Automatic annotation (TrEMBL):
Superkingdom in the source lineage: Bacteria
Organism placement in taxonomy: Bacteria, Bacillati, Bacillota, Bacilli, Bacillales
PROSITE patterns in the record: ABC_TRANSPORTER_2
ABC transporter domain: residues covered: 5-237
Keywords, alphabetical: ATP-binding, Nucleotide-binding
This protein's name: ATP-binding cassette domain-containing protein
Length: 237
C-alpha cells in the first residue's frame, strides 16, 4: 500500500519581529501515512503537534522540508510548495481539518454550514439536505439550534458542529487537532464511531489527542513529539 502522505525533514519556526526573537517549533520531522491508516501524534502542550497539522493544511508555511501528498486531483504534490489555488482546491475536495475552534462566516446557520460543505464537494442540494440531517442527529445537536447562528452556541455545541461539518465531507485525508478536548464522554463516543466509519470507507486520518484512552484500539501507529522532534512510539493496536 503506497503512502498517502510523506513528511520529510519538516522544519518550522516563528519570528517575533517586535521582540527580535526567533522561536523554533518543530525541526526535522519525518513521518508517513499509508492510505486508510489512522496515525496519532502525542506530546506535551507546546511541543509542536499542532504546528505539524497546520503545515500539512498550509495554515503555516514550512521553513524547510517536503510534504508529499498523493492527490487525486493533482497527482503527487508537495504541500509545502503548492500554489494557494491548489491548496484551496485540496481543502474543498480532499483534505479536511477539525480543530477545537469554529470559525465561520457570519449569518450562516448550523444547517447551512454543513449543507454548504457537502455541496462544495460537488453533491446535489437534496443529497446535502439528507446527509446534514443524519449527521446533526448523530451528534445530538438540538433541533432548535439547526437554523440558528453558531455564535450563540456553547463551546461543546460549536465543537460538535465543527466535527460534523468536516466529517460529513468524507475527505481522503482528515486532520484532527484535539477534536474531543471539550466534549463529554457521550459525544466522544459519537466521534469515535464516526472515525471508525470513515476508516472503513477509506479516509486516512492524522490526529492529536490528549485523551490517550480515546486513541486505544484506534490508531495504527503513534508518533511522539518532544521539544520539536518526532519519534515513532510503539504500535497502539
Amino acid at each position: 500500500m503506497e503512502n498517502l502522505l510523506s513528511i520529510e525533514h519538516l522544519t518550522k519556526s516563528f519570528t517575533l519581529h517586535n521582540l527580535n526573537k526567533h522561536i523554533p517549533a518543530v525541526e526535522d520531522v519525518n513521518l508517513f501515512l499509508k492510505e486508510g491508516e489512522f496515525i496519532g501524534i502525542t506530546g506535551k502542550s507546546g511541543s509542536g503537534k499542532s504546528t505539524v497539522l497546520k503545515c500539512i493544511y498550509r495554515t503555516y508555511l514550512p521553513n524547510a522540508g517536503h510534504l508529499w501528498y498523493n492527490s487525486e486531483r493533482y497527482g503527487t504534490i508537495d504541500l509545502a510548495a503548492a500554489s494557494e489555488r491548489s491548496i484551496i482546491e485540496l481543502r474543498k475536495h480532499e483534505i479536511g481539518y477539525v480543530s477545537q475552534f469554529l470559525n465561520v462566516m457570519p449569518r450562516t446557520t448550523a444547517r447551512e454550514l454543513v449543507q454548504n460543505a457537502i455541496v462544495e464537494m460537488g453533491h446535489p442540494r437534496d443529497y446535502a439536505e439528507v446527509e446534514t440531517i443524519k449527521i446533526l442527529e448523530h451528534f445530538e445537536l438540538d433541533y432548535s439550534l439547526w437554523d440558528s447562528y453558531p455564535a450563540t452556541f456553547s463551546g461543546g455545541e460549536k465543537l460538535r458542529l465543527n466535527i460534523a461539518r468536516a466529517m460529513v465531507k468524507r475527505p481522503r485525508l482528515l486532520l484532527l487537532d484535539e477534536p474531543t478536548a471539550s466534549l463529554d464522554n457521550s459525544s466522544k463516543r459519537k466521534v469515535k464511531l464516526l472515525i471508525e466509519q470513515l476508516m472503513k470507507q477509506g479516509t486516512t486520518m492524522l490526529g492529536i489527542f490528549h485523551d490517550l484512552e480515546f486513541m486505544e484500539n484506534l490508531c495504527d501507529r503513534e508518533y511522539q513529539i518532544r521539544n520539536g522532534t518526532c519519534t515513532v512510539a510503539e504500535k497502539m493496536k
